[in-house]
Protein backbone atom coordinates (compact mmCIF):
# COMPACT_ATOMS: atom_id res chain seq x y z
CA UNK A 1 0.00 0.00 0.00
CA UNK A 2 1.45 3.39 -0.91
CA UNK A 3 2.28 5.60 2.01
CA UNK A 4 0.23 8.71 2.63
CA UNK A 5 1.81 12.13 2.37
CA UNK A 6 1.29 14.90 4.89
CA UNK A 7 2.79 18.08 3.47
CA UNK A 8 3.93 20.73 5.91
CA UNK A 9 5.55 23.62 4.01
CA UNK A 10 7.48 26.26 5.93
CA UNK A 11 9.06 29.28 4.28
CA UNK A 12 10.87 31.64 6.62
CA UNK A 13 14.13 33.04 5.26
CA UNK A 14 16.57 33.41 2.42
CA UNK A 15 18.96 30.48 2.34
CA UNK A 16 16.93 27.91 4.22
CA UNK A 17 17.46 24.31 5.12
CA UNK A 18 15.15 21.87 3.35
CA UNK A 19 14.26 18.30 4.25
CA UNK A 20 12.11 15.35 3.30
CA UNK A 21 11.16 12.58 5.71
CA UNK A 22 9.51 9.32 4.71
CA UNK A 23 8.31 6.45 6.89
CA UNK A 24 8.38 2.97 5.31
CA UNK A 25 6.97 0.07 7.31
CA UNK A 26 6.39 -2.78 4.88
CA UNK A 27 8.28 -4.54 2.09
CA UNK A 28 8.30 -4.33 -0.85
CA UNK A 29 9.28 -0.70 -0.64
CA UNK A 30 6.71 1.70 -2.04
CA UNK A 31 7.67 5.33 -2.56
CA UNK A 32 5.37 8.22 -3.27
CA UNK A 33 7.10 11.16 -4.87
CA UNK A 34 8.13 14.14 -2.81
CA UNK A 35 9.94 17.25 -4.02
CA UNK A 36 11.27 20.32 -2.24
CA UNK A 37 13.46 23.15 -3.53
CA UNK A 38 14.19 26.80 -2.84
CA UNK A 39 11.72 28.07 -5.45
CA UNK A 40 8.16 27.05 -6.31
CA UNK A 41 8.80 27.16 -10.08
CA UNK A 42 11.67 24.71 -9.69
CA UNK A 43 9.62 22.44 -7.44
CA UNK A 44 6.88 22.37 -10.09
CA UNK A 45 9.39 21.53 -12.83
CA UNK A 46 10.78 18.66 -10.74
CA UNK A 47 7.29 17.28 -10.16
CA UNK A 48 6.55 17.44 -13.89
CA UNK A 49 9.71 15.44 -14.65
CA UNK A 50 8.56 12.69 -12.29
CA UNK A 51 5.07 12.74 -13.82
CA UNK A 52 6.62 12.31 -17.27
CA UNK A 53 8.52 9.19 -16.20
CA UNK A 54 11.84 10.79 -15.39
CA UNK A 55 14.07 9.47 -12.63
CA UNK A 56 14.56 11.22 -9.30
CA UNK A 57 17.99 12.32 -10.54
CA UNK A 58 16.45 13.71 -13.75
CA UNK A 59 14.15 15.77 -11.56
CA UNK A 60 17.01 16.92 -9.34
CA UNK A 61 19.03 18.01 -12.38
CA UNK A 62 16.14 20.06 -13.74
CA UNK A 63 15.63 21.58 -10.30
CA UNK A 64 19.28 22.54 -9.95
CA UNK A 65 19.37 24.09 -13.44
CA UNK A 66 16.14 25.93 -12.69
CA UNK A 67 17.56 27.43 -9.50
CA UNK A 68 20.55 28.66 -11.49
CA UNK A 69 18.09 30.60 -13.63
CA UNK A 70 15.59 32.00 -11.11
CA UNK A 71 18.20 32.48 -8.36
CA UNK A 72 21.28 33.51 -10.37
CA UNK A 73 22.76 35.17 -7.28
CA UNK A 74 22.96 31.77 -5.57
CA UNK A 75 23.92 29.17 -8.17
CA UNK A 76 24.27 28.50 -11.88
CA UNK A 77 26.42 26.88 -14.55
CA UNK A 78 29.26 29.20 -13.53
CA UNK A 79 29.42 27.49 -10.14
CA UNK A 80 29.64 24.00 -8.71
CA UNK A 81 28.01 21.64 -6.25
CA UNK A 82 27.55 18.22 -4.73
CA UNK A 83 24.85 15.58 -5.29
CA UNK A 84 24.17 12.66 -2.95
CA UNK A 85 22.10 9.76 -4.34
CA UNK A 86 20.84 6.91 -2.15
CA UNK A 87 19.17 3.80 -3.61
CA UNK A 88 16.86 2.66 -0.82
CA UNK A 89 16.15 -0.76 -2.31
CA UNK A 90 19.81 -1.62 -2.89
CA UNK A 91 21.03 0.36 0.14
CA UNK A 92 23.78 1.95 -1.96
CA UNK A 93 24.88 5.57 -1.91
CA UNK A 94 27.02 7.63 -4.27
CA UNK A 95 28.31 11.18 -4.00
CA UNK A 96 28.85 13.13 -7.23
CA UNK A 97 31.24 15.97 -6.44
CA UNK A 98 31.29 18.74 -9.03
CA UNK A 99 32.62 21.48 -6.81
CA UNK A 100 35.06 23.62 -8.74
CA UNK A 101 38.83 23.50 -8.53
CA UNK A 102 41.68 26.02 -8.47
CA UNK A 103 43.31 27.14 -11.74
CA UNK A 104 46.50 25.46 -12.93
CA UNK A 105 48.42 28.68 -12.41
CA UNK A 106 48.62 29.16 -8.66
CA UNK A 107 48.11 32.83 -7.78
CA UNK A 108 50.22 34.15 -4.94
CA UNK A 109 48.44 37.49 -4.94
CA UNK A 110 45.80 38.38 -2.39
CA UNK A 111 42.45 37.32 -3.87
CA UNK A 112 40.47 39.72 -1.70
CA UNK A 113 39.35 42.64 -3.83
CA UNK A 114 40.43 40.92 -7.06
CA UNK A 115 37.33 39.36 -8.61
CA UNK A 116 39.22 37.61 -11.39
CA UNK A 117 41.51 35.74 -8.99
CA UNK A 118 38.51 34.48 -7.02
CA UNK A 119 37.17 32.42 -9.95
CA UNK A 120 37.65 28.64 -9.96
CA UNK A 121 36.78 26.11 -12.66
CA UNK A 122 32.96 25.81 -12.87
CA UNK A 123 31.87 22.18 -12.42
CA UNK A 124 28.08 22.52 -12.40
CA UNK A 125 27.13 21.50 -15.93
CA UNK A 126 29.62 18.63 -16.21
CA UNK A 127 28.61 17.32 -12.79
CA UNK A 128 24.91 17.26 -13.61
CA UNK A 129 25.71 15.59 -16.93
CA UNK A 130 27.68 12.88 -15.10
CA UNK A 131 24.75 12.32 -12.73
CA UNK A 132 22.48 11.91 -15.74
CA UNK A 133 24.84 9.34 -17.27
CA UNK A 134 24.66 7.33 -14.06
CA UNK A 135 20.98 7.63 -13.15
CA UNK A 136 19.12 9.37 -15.99
CA UNK A 137 15.94 8.10 -17.61
CA UNK A 138 14.81 10.91 -19.90
CA UNK A 139 17.18 12.16 -22.60
CA UNK A 140 19.66 14.89 -21.72
CA UNK A 141 18.13 17.18 -24.35
CA UNK A 142 14.70 16.64 -22.79
CA UNK A 143 16.02 17.75 -19.41
CA UNK A 144 17.92 20.73 -20.78
CA UNK A 145 14.95 21.95 -22.80
CA UNK A 146 12.77 22.23 -19.69
CA UNK A 147 15.22 24.59 -17.98
CA UNK A 148 15.96 26.46 -21.23
CA UNK A 149 12.25 27.04 -21.84
CA UNK A 150 11.92 28.62 -18.40
CA UNK A 151 14.89 30.91 -19.05
CA UNK A 152 13.51 31.97 -22.43
CA UNK A 153 9.91 32.47 -21.25
CA UNK A 154 10.95 34.35 -18.12
CA UNK A 155 9.97 34.52 -14.46
CA UNK A 156 9.16 36.97 -11.68
CA UNK A 157 11.98 38.20 -9.47
CA UNK A 158 11.79 36.56 -6.05
CA UNK A 159 12.30 38.36 -2.77
CA UNK A 160 15.65 36.62 -2.39
CA UNK A 161 16.89 37.78 -5.80
CA UNK A 162 15.52 41.28 -5.30
CA UNK A 163 17.41 41.60 -2.03
CA UNK A 164 20.66 40.49 -3.68
CA UNK A 165 20.13 42.93 -6.57
CA UNK A 166 19.61 45.78 -4.12
CA UNK A 167 23.03 45.00 -2.66
CA UNK A 168 24.55 45.16 -6.15
CA UNK A 169 22.95 48.57 -6.54
CA UNK A 170 24.31 49.72 -3.17
CA UNK A 171 27.81 48.55 -4.12
CA UNK A 172 27.60 50.48 -7.42
CA UNK A 173 28.56 47.42 -9.47
CA UNK A 174 29.32 48.07 -13.14
CA UNK A 175 29.46 45.90 -16.26
CA UNK A 176 27.19 43.24 -17.72
CA UNK A 177 25.82 42.13 -14.37
CA UNK A 178 24.55 45.66 -13.77
CA UNK A 179 23.07 45.90 -17.26
CA UNK A 180 21.16 42.66 -16.63
CA UNK A 181 19.80 43.29 -13.15
CA UNK A 182 19.84 47.10 -12.98
CA UNK A 183 18.78 48.00 -16.56
CA UNK A 184 18.84 51.72 -17.34
CA UNK A 185 19.83 52.35 -13.74
CA UNK A 186 16.59 50.86 -12.38
CA UNK A 187 17.15 47.82 -10.16
CA UNK A 188 14.76 44.93 -10.70
CA UNK A 189 12.41 44.70 -7.74
CA UNK A 190 10.38 41.93 -6.19
CA UNK A 191 7.81 40.80 -8.76
CA UNK A 192 9.61 42.31 -11.77
CA UNK A 193 9.57 40.10 -14.86
CA UNK A 194 12.85 39.04 -16.43
CA UNK A 195 13.78 36.78 -19.35
CA UNK A 196 17.17 35.08 -19.78
CA UNK A 197 17.37 33.86 -23.41
CA UNK A 198 21.16 34.08 -23.12
CA UNK A 199 21.20 31.32 -20.49
CA UNK A 200 18.80 29.24 -22.59
CA UNK A 201 21.33 29.32 -25.44
CA UNK A 202 24.19 28.35 -23.12
CA UNK A 203 22.27 25.29 -21.92
CA UNK A 204 21.27 24.27 -25.43
CA UNK A 205 24.79 24.50 -26.87
CA UNK A 206 25.83 21.50 -24.82
CA UNK A 207 28.39 20.29 -22.29
CA UNK A 208 31.17 19.73 -24.82
CA UNK A 209 30.82 23.26 -26.17
CA UNK A 210 30.98 24.61 -22.61
CA UNK A 211 34.15 22.79 -21.55
CA UNK A 212 36.00 22.37 -24.83
CA UNK A 213 34.63 25.06 -27.12
CA UNK A 214 33.89 28.74 -27.42
CA UNK A 215 32.33 29.12 -23.99
CA UNK A 216 35.54 28.02 -22.25
CA UNK A 217 37.42 30.60 -24.34
CA UNK A 218 34.85 33.21 -23.39
CA UNK A 219 35.27 32.41 -19.68
CA UNK A 220 39.06 32.60 -20.00
CA UNK A 221 38.83 35.99 -21.70
CA UNK A 222 36.47 37.43 -19.11
CA UNK A 223 38.41 36.15 -16.09
CA UNK A 224 41.77 37.36 -17.35
CA UNK A 225 40.31 40.74 -18.28
CA UNK A 226 39.44 41.04 -14.60
CA UNK A 227 42.91 40.15 -13.34
CA UNK A 228 42.41 36.39 -13.00
CA UNK A 229 44.49 33.43 -14.17
CA UNK A 230 41.87 30.79 -15.07
CA UNK A 231 42.34 29.55 -18.65
CA UNK A 232 40.64 27.22 -21.12
CA UNK A 233 43.05 24.37 -20.28
CA UNK A 234 41.87 24.45 -16.67
CA UNK A 235 38.29 24.16 -17.88
CA UNK A 236 39.05 21.43 -20.44
CA UNK A 237 40.91 19.30 -17.89
CA UNK A 238 38.27 19.53 -15.17
CA UNK A 239 36.81 16.21 -14.02
CA UNK A 240 33.88 15.21 -11.82
CA UNK A 241 34.57 12.98 -8.82
CA UNK A 242 32.27 10.06 -7.95
CA UNK A 243 32.82 9.18 -4.31
CA UNK A 244 31.61 7.02 -1.46
CA UNK A 245 29.91 8.95 1.34
CA UNK A 246 31.15 9.31 4.88
CA UNK A 247 28.89 7.28 7.17
CA UNK A 248 28.28 7.14 10.89
CA UNK A 249 25.61 5.66 13.10
CA UNK A 250 23.51 8.08 15.11
CA UNK A 251 21.11 6.34 17.48
CA UNK A 252 18.97 4.12 15.22
CA UNK A 253 20.02 5.73 11.94
CA UNK A 254 23.02 5.99 9.67
CA UNK A 255 23.92 9.49 8.53
CA UNK A 256 25.52 9.74 5.06
CA UNK A 257 27.34 12.92 4.03
CA UNK A 258 29.82 13.89 1.30
CA UNK A 259 33.47 13.02 2.01
CA UNK A 260 36.41 15.42 1.87
CA UNK A 261 36.81 18.12 0.76
CA UNK A 262 33.27 18.60 2.05
CA UNK A 263 33.09 19.39 5.76
CA UNK A 264 30.43 16.72 6.31
CA UNK A 265 32.69 15.24 8.98
CA UNK A 266 31.82 18.22 11.20
CA UNK A 267 28.15 17.18 11.14
CA UNK A 268 29.07 13.60 12.06
CA UNK A 269 31.38 14.76 14.85
CA UNK A 270 28.69 17.04 16.28
CA UNK A 271 26.09 14.25 16.23
CA UNK A 272 28.57 11.89 17.89
CA UNK A 273 29.05 14.43 20.67
CA UNK A 274 25.30 14.87 21.11
CA UNK A 275 24.77 11.12 21.21
CA UNK A 276 27.01 10.83 24.28
CA UNK A 277 24.69 13.19 26.18
CA UNK A 278 21.47 11.14 25.78
CA UNK A 279 19.55 14.41 25.72
CA UNK A 280 16.25 12.82 24.75
CA UNK A 281 16.36 10.41 27.65
CA UNK A 282 16.59 13.31 30.08
CA UNK A 283 14.34 16.21 30.95
CA UNK A 284 16.03 18.83 28.76
CA UNK A 285 14.25 21.90 27.44
CA UNK A 286 14.32 22.92 23.78
CA UNK A 287 16.46 25.95 24.63
CA UNK A 288 18.95 23.78 26.54
CA UNK A 289 19.08 21.32 23.66
CA UNK A 290 19.76 24.16 21.24
CA UNK A 291 22.69 25.34 23.39
CA UNK A 292 24.14 21.83 23.50
CA UNK A 293 23.92 21.64 19.71
CA UNK A 294 25.69 25.00 19.41
CA UNK A 295 28.42 23.77 21.75
CA UNK A 296 28.81 20.48 19.87
CA UNK A 297 29.16 22.26 16.53
CA UNK A 298 31.65 24.80 17.85
CA UNK A 299 33.72 22.01 19.37
CA UNK A 300 33.70 19.99 16.14
CA UNK A 301 34.25 23.04 13.93
CA UNK A 302 37.38 23.96 15.89
CA UNK A 303 39.02 20.92 14.28
CA UNK A 304 38.00 21.80 10.71
CA UNK A 305 41.31 23.51 9.95
CA UNK A 306 42.93 20.07 9.89
CA UNK A 307 40.79 19.03 6.91
CA UNK A 308 41.12 19.69 3.18
CA UNK A 309 41.54 17.97 -0.18
CA UNK A 310 43.06 14.49 0.47
CA UNK A 311 44.50 14.35 -3.05
CA UNK A 312 46.93 17.10 -2.06
CA UNK A 313 47.55 16.19 1.58
CA UNK A 314 47.15 12.58 2.69
CA UNK A 315 47.49 13.54 6.36
CA UNK A 316 43.95 14.91 6.35
CA UNK A 317 42.68 11.31 6.24
CA UNK A 318 44.13 10.68 9.70
CA UNK A 319 42.55 13.87 11.01
CA UNK A 320 39.26 12.85 9.41
CA UNK A 321 39.28 9.41 11.06
CA UNK A 322 39.93 10.98 14.45
CA UNK A 323 37.25 13.63 13.98
CA UNK A 324 34.42 11.20 13.21
CA UNK A 325 35.35 8.40 15.63
CA UNK A 326 33.06 7.62 18.56
CA UNK A 327 36.12 7.51 20.82
CA UNK A 328 37.04 11.06 19.86
CA UNK A 329 33.54 12.18 20.84
CA UNK A 330 34.00 10.85 24.36
CA UNK A 331 37.35 12.61 24.61
CA UNK A 332 35.85 15.93 23.51
CA UNK A 333 33.02 15.96 26.04
CA UNK A 334 34.84 18.18 28.53
CA UNK A 335 35.82 20.64 25.80
CA UNK A 336 32.19 20.79 24.69
CA UNK A 337 31.06 21.46 28.27
CA UNK A 338 33.59 24.30 28.51
CA UNK A 339 32.21 25.78 25.30
CA UNK A 340 28.68 25.45 26.68
CA UNK A 341 29.64 27.42 29.79
CA UNK A 342 31.04 30.19 27.60
CA UNK A 343 27.82 30.28 25.57
CA UNK A 344 25.72 30.60 28.72
CA UNK A 345 28.07 33.21 30.20
CA UNK A 346 27.94 35.36 27.07
CA UNK A 347 24.28 34.58 26.34
CA UNK A 348 25.28 34.04 22.71
CA UNK A 349 24.61 31.48 20.00
CA UNK A 350 26.64 30.03 17.19
CA UNK A 351 27.50 32.51 14.43
CA UNK A 352 28.48 31.89 10.81
CA UNK A 353 32.00 32.10 9.48
CA UNK A 354 32.60 35.25 7.47
CA UNK A 355 32.79 33.17 4.30
CA UNK A 356 29.25 31.83 4.65
CA UNK A 357 27.91 30.83 1.26
CA UNK A 358 24.46 30.73 -0.28
CA UNK A 359 23.32 27.49 -1.84
CA UNK A 360 20.66 26.26 -4.23
CA UNK A 361 18.95 23.21 -2.77
CA UNK A 362 16.83 20.42 -4.24
CA UNK A 363 15.72 17.25 -2.44
CA UNK A 364 13.82 14.49 -4.25
CA UNK A 365 12.26 11.20 -3.16
CA UNK A 366 10.80 9.61 -6.28
CA UNK A 367 8.97 6.37 -7.15
CA UNK A 368 12.22 4.78 -8.41
CA UNK A 369 13.61 4.11 -4.89
CA UNK A 370 16.15 6.92 -5.29
CA UNK A 371 16.58 9.59 -2.64
CA UNK A 372 18.49 12.59 -3.99
CA UNK A 373 19.86 15.69 -2.30
CA UNK A 374 21.81 18.25 -4.31
CA UNK A 375 23.42 21.52 -3.26
CA UNK A 376 24.94 24.01 -5.71
CA UNK A 377 26.58 27.38 -5.20
CA UNK A 378 28.48 30.37 -6.59
CA UNK A 379 30.05 30.67 -3.11
CA UNK A 380 28.70 34.15 -2.29
CA UNK A 381 25.87 36.31 -3.72
CA UNK A 382 26.53 36.62 -7.48
CA UNK A 383 29.84 34.80 -7.02
CA UNK A 384 32.74 36.86 -8.36
CA UNK A 385 30.23 39.36 -9.79
CA UNK A 386 31.76 38.71 -13.20
CA UNK A 387 29.32 37.93 -16.04
CA UNK A 388 30.47 36.62 -19.42
CA UNK A 389 29.08 37.70 -22.78
CA UNK A 390 26.78 34.65 -22.73
CA UNK A 391 25.29 35.67 -19.39
CA UNK A 392 27.19 33.18 -17.20
CA UNK A 393 27.86 34.48 -13.69
CA UNK A 394 31.20 33.10 -12.51
CA UNK A 395 31.86 31.72 -9.04
CA UNK A 396 34.13 33.05 -6.29
CA UNK A 397 35.27 29.56 -5.30
CA UNK A 398 38.88 30.49 -4.50
CA UNK A 399 37.71 32.59 -1.55
CA UNK A 400 36.98 29.29 0.23
CA UNK A 401 40.72 28.77 0.58
CA UNK A 402 40.97 31.99 2.60
CA UNK A 403 39.17 32.56 5.87
CA UNK A 404 39.56 36.19 7.01
CA UNK A 405 38.44 35.53 10.58
CA UNK A 406 41.27 33.06 11.13
CA UNK A 407 44.42 34.47 12.76
CA UNK A 408 46.64 33.46 9.86
CA UNK A 409 44.08 34.48 7.26
CA UNK A 410 44.64 31.11 5.60
CA UNK A 411 42.85 27.85 6.31
CA UNK A 412 44.44 25.68 3.64
CA UNK A 413 46.86 26.40 0.83
CA UNK A 414 45.57 27.20 -2.64
CA UNK A 415 47.17 24.77 -5.11
CA UNK A 416 46.54 24.15 -8.84
CA UNK A 417 43.67 21.71 -9.30
CA UNK A 418 42.85 21.62 -5.60
CA UNK A 419 39.28 21.79 -4.31
CA UNK A 420 38.71 23.93 -1.22
CA UNK A 421 36.96 22.79 1.91
CA UNK A 422 33.24 23.40 1.48
CA UNK A 423 30.19 23.43 3.72
CA UNK A 424 27.87 22.26 0.94
CA UNK A 425 25.94 19.67 2.90
CA UNK A 426 23.52 17.33 1.09
CA UNK A 427 22.81 14.48 3.51
CA UNK A 428 20.70 11.35 3.92
CA UNK A 429 19.70 9.45 7.06
CA UNK A 430 18.59 5.82 6.69
CA UNK A 431 17.47 3.09 9.15
CA UNK A 432 20.38 1.18 10.66
CA UNK A 433 19.00 -2.32 10.92
CA UNK A 434 16.81 -2.89 7.84
CA UNK A 435 15.06 -1.18 4.95
CA UNK A 436 11.91 -0.51 6.96
CA UNK A 437 11.82 2.68 8.98
CA UNK A 438 12.36 6.40 8.70
CA UNK A 439 14.39 7.95 5.88
CA UNK A 440 15.40 11.58 5.70
CA UNK A 441 17.11 13.63 3.00
CA UNK A 442 18.14 17.22 3.55
CA UNK A 443 20.42 20.01 2.45
CA UNK A 444 21.72 23.22 3.97
CA UNK A 445 22.53 26.56 2.44
CA UNK A 446 26.12 26.46 3.65
CA UNK A 447 28.16 27.91 6.48
CA UNK A 448 28.15 26.93 10.13
CA UNK A 449 24.84 28.61 10.90
CA UNK A 450 23.05 26.38 8.36
CA UNK A 451 25.07 23.41 9.55
CA UNK A 452 23.58 24.24 12.93
CA UNK A 453 20.08 23.89 11.48
CA UNK A 454 20.92 20.59 9.78
CA UNK A 455 22.30 19.24 13.06
CA UNK A 456 19.11 20.23 14.87
CA UNK A 457 16.92 18.48 12.30
CA UNK A 458 19.05 15.31 12.38
CA UNK A 459 19.25 15.22 16.16
CA UNK A 460 15.50 15.80 16.52
CA UNK A 461 14.67 12.81 14.32
CA UNK A 462 14.86 10.24 17.11
CA UNK A 463 11.43 9.45 18.50
CA UNK A 464 9.80 12.55 17.05
CA UNK A 465 9.02 11.74 13.41
CA UNK A 466 5.26 11.94 13.97
CA UNK A 467 5.53 15.39 15.54
CA UNK A 468 5.24 18.36 13.24
CA UNK A 469 7.20 20.35 15.84
CA UNK A 470 10.39 18.52 14.85
CA UNK A 471 10.42 20.61 11.68
CA UNK A 472 9.58 24.01 13.10
CA UNK A 473 10.08 27.19 11.07
CA UNK A 474 13.19 28.00 13.10
CA UNK A 475 14.86 24.87 11.77
CA UNK A 476 13.62 23.90 8.33
CA UNK A 477 12.63 25.90 5.28
CA UNK A 478 10.42 23.41 3.46
CA UNK A 479 9.49 19.97 4.72
CA UNK A 480 7.28 17.03 3.85
CA UNK A 481 6.43 14.43 6.47
CA UNK A 482 5.76 10.96 5.06
CA UNK A 483 3.88 8.62 7.38
CA UNK A 484 2.24 5.21 6.96
CA UNK A 485 -1.55 5.00 6.79
TrEMBL record:
UniProt keyword Membrane present: yes
Coiled-coil region: none
GO cellular component term of the entry, any: plasma membrane
A Pfam family hit: G_glu_transpept
Record carries keyword Transmembrane: yes
Transmembrane spans: 7-31
Keywords: Membrane, Transmembrane, Transmembrane helix
One GO BP: glutathione catabolic process
Active site per the UniProt annotation: 359
Amino acids binding L-glutamate: 377-379, 400, 447
InterPro entries: GGT_lsub, GGT_peptidase, GGT_ssub_C, Ntn_hydrolases_N
A GO molecular-function annotation: glutathione hydrolase activity
PANTHER family in the cross-refs: GAMMA GLUTAMYL TRANSPEPTIDASE, GLUTATHIONE HYDROLASE 7
Similarity-based family: Belongs to the gamma-glutamyltransferase family.
Protein name in UniProt: Gamma-glutamyltransferase 7-like
Native organism taxonomy: Eukaryota, Metazoa, Chordata, Craniata, Vertebrata
